[in-house]
Amino acid sequence: MKNILVPVGNSPDSFETLQYAVDFAANFGAEVYVMEVLNISTGAGDLANIKDKVVESSRDRVRELIEKIKPGKVEIKIATYTGDIIDGLKDIEKELGIDLIIIAPRSVEVDDELYLGNTSGRVIKRTDIPTLIVPKGSKFKKYKTILTAFRSGVLKRKRVLNPLINIKNAFNSQVNLLLVKTPGYTDDDLKINTALMDISAQVTLTEHATTYLGVLEHFQLQHPDLLCVFRRKRGFFQNLWEKNTILKSEFSVRIPVLVLSVKKD
Known about the structure:
The protein is α/β, with parallel strands linked by helices. It has 7 helices and 12 strands. The strands form 2 sheets. A 10-stranded mixed sheet has the order 3-2-1-4-6-12-10-7-8-9, sandwiched between helices. Strands 5-11 form a two-stranded antiparallel ribbon.
């Protein structure tokens, strides 16, 4: 894991997410890119250099944010993008090769009923970059136990698991698998990818209406430090495909959530 990207919004607590990312990155010798997205609309009468001024002002805000944290030996770089955040993420990923996005569930504190806000939801829904969702106020600690929950154990590409494997190896974590049989499951769904089995210490099979309900049943039993799920249209965050937000009534945990992307599923 070499490059970690941290999109920052207008929240005054953005530095907390950045500090978490820096402390996380230190365990991998990774660089951290702080990304701020700007939407600039200019008319014919605007000054020709207005974009440059806005970009420089943005960089000043990011520098102030960086001054609030303790970077240690982690190198922090600024990545400013003008336009839509999804386009920006894809362009930066193409240019740099981003291994992980670390993001807060909500970029602004508008609706306390939401677990995932519109921006964070769009990042997970519309990119294929692995994403670590870090709850507000979280301080980094090593993950002793990782609960990996899914409704289908079929993975078309082993490299989907790379972030999970890297984290497991870095922190000597125990990975426990939770296969949740939901309505409409097939026999193929019950087949667990061999690479996933190889890194697991325990496999539990349960049956519920949704994967999340299966997680709730086993959450208190295992007390995981990290929840790992897969980004699928019919998977854990399937409601994201209907909208860009997730209500706390639909899903909410107080630990970081690692979302691994599965293409064409």
